[in-house]
Specification:
Rossmann fold; six-stranded mixed β-sheet; globular
């Protein structure tokens, strides 16, 4: 997550989803996986090569949660567009946030501080720029800060905490894509692939969320939240959907 994305349509979906999880009785922690923009992301004049944060919430989708949409749009159009502005918005009451920037050299210590700060919460949302680490990126690569490591997910599960993970859609077919991610998460965390839940937000840029439950109770609560999104106004407008099991 980067400050320059705050308030965009991606935040609309993720905050809506976190609110739904909280409605099911789950206490929520957010690890923003905050990164500072890399020099390679910028043009010579200092502007960004990809303005992903330009995707504001279209008027026809604001009906999903009008107050939230209005507040996020205000943040996105302000001179104080930042992760901190999302936290100050108090969109998820009593949520706990970890917003320390990641560095390659200090990642181990960064992760340990996150585990300590978010300990005791029912579910932790991991919000890396790109999602789970891919084979083409090494753990010591400069680009690694844009990814969550599978072992980091396992550490939260080890603390009896469920995990919700953001992942940017790859070019693979949906079935194969979700199966590969779920199998790897299952292998590392010990949570069977069949227990992992998925929901996708396809508007503007496809954003996927996978939930790794730490208990049967958590899984039922997470599933209820996903279904409420899928079958409610969010799903009816096409803002989100649960991939159909085959």
């Amino acid at each position: 997550m980067q400050d320059r994305y705050a308030g965009d349509i991606g935040d609309y979906g993720k905050i809506g989803l976190l609110k739904a999880l909280q409605t099911q009785g789950l206490s929520v922690g957010v690890n923003w996986y905050r990164v500072e923009p890399m020099d390679t992301e910028k043009k010579a004049d200092g502007t960004y090569k990809q303005e992903d944060g330009k995707y504001l919430i279209p008027e026809y989708l604001q009906v999903c949660d009008t107050p939230l949409a209005e507040q996020l749009t205000k943040i996105a159009k302000s001179n104080n567009r930042s992760i901190k502005s999302l936290e100050r918005g108090d969109f998820i009451p009593d949520a706990r946030y970890y917003s320390e920037p990641i560095t390659v050299a200090g990642r181990y210590e960064w992760h340990k501080r996150a585990l300590d700060l978010l300990r005791g919460l029912d579910i932790v949302f991991m919000d890396p720029d790109n999602g789970m680490l891919v084979k083409s990126v090494g753990k010591r690569s400069a680009k690694s800060i844009k990814y969550a490591f599978y072992e980091e997910v396992a550490d939260y599960i080890g603390q009896k905490q469920s995990v919700l993970i953001y992942n940017h859609r790859s070019r693979k077919q949906e079935d194969a894509y979700f199966r590969e991610l779920s199998e790897k998460l299952g292998e590392i965390t010990g949570v069977p692939e069949s227990r992992i839940l998925k929901i996708t937000f396809p508007r503007c840029s496809v954003r996927d969320y996978l939930a790794v439950p730490a208990s049967d109770v958590h899984r039922e609560n997470i599933k209820a939240a996903f279904v409420s999104m899928d079958q409610g106004i969010w799903g009816k407008t096409g803002m989100c959907r649960m991939p159909r099991e085959r």
